[in-house]
Amino acid sequence: MSAPSTSPSFTFRNAAGHDVFVRRWIPADKPRAALAVVHGLAEHSGRYEHFARALNDSGFAVYALDRRGHGHTVAPDALGDGGTDSWNGTLEDIALLEGIIRSEYPRLGLFLFGHSLGSVFVQRYMQLHGTELAGAVLSGTFGRVRDLGNLLAMVDTMSAGAAAQQRTLSPATMAGYNKAFENRTGFEWLSRDPAQVDAYVKDPLCGFAVTNGYVRDFLYGFAETWEPANEARVPVTLPILIFSGERDPVGEEMASVKDLAGRYRSRGARDLKVTFYPEGRHEMLNELNRDEVMRDVIGWLREH
Length: 304
Prior knowledge:
By secondary structure, this protein is α/β, with parallel strands linked by helices. The chain has helices spanning 49-57, 86-104, 117-129, 148-158, 194-202, 212-225, 228-231, 255-266, 290-303; strands at residues 4-13, 19-27, 33-38, 60-65, 110-115, 135-139, 240-245, 272-277.
């Protein structure tokens, strides 16, 4: 195996005129394939470095952008503000990153990896650009939000005018995720590993509130993504890996994940693998058995 080497981070200018921050990890030897990471809500690309270095050891070039309103793509005081039409804008940013990767490695297959909210961006991206991908990986994903119609009506009211910049969705509003777990920090739903939970809590680029306008954008994005006609646009030949913790509250302890996988199967998906890890919570890449999880994911990527 080749020892991983880290290439410098870079930025690219998106259609909104803002600089998008990207981390890039390149193996020392010639890459065999490339993978782009789309992170979750209220976190950032730097949290995937351990995964990227493991991928480097298997010959994968890895890129991870900070999404709009996250990480180093915005000033610290603007965290949680994705700007106008952040849902479609983020999809455009992913497409721009894909173009950059292909310009650097035009002959390599490209995989897309999304975690949590990032996985729903990947769900939609598969519909729009699935024929361009070698495969897609959905981590900590979900395929429904209960009472989505009522939530859309409520968020329309909450995000009208100046209220769009208010931050109603905060870590406190997600406390329900922690009800089934110990409540040392309120973020035990992320992982059984206290060190990983503490690292998240102490990270200034994690756990922040987001604007009402941002919530509106991604809720409408969910509704669009889960339209049957749109889900039918995912190429049936596209390899898809879904993995989740059995106790992940975001995936409704497997129920929402199984619902999503069932819809893909009903529409003819030919290469779909679903893995659930016993006792696992939301961030399987940061769980107690993360080495096992990364071996499984990398093994699937190598097969494809």
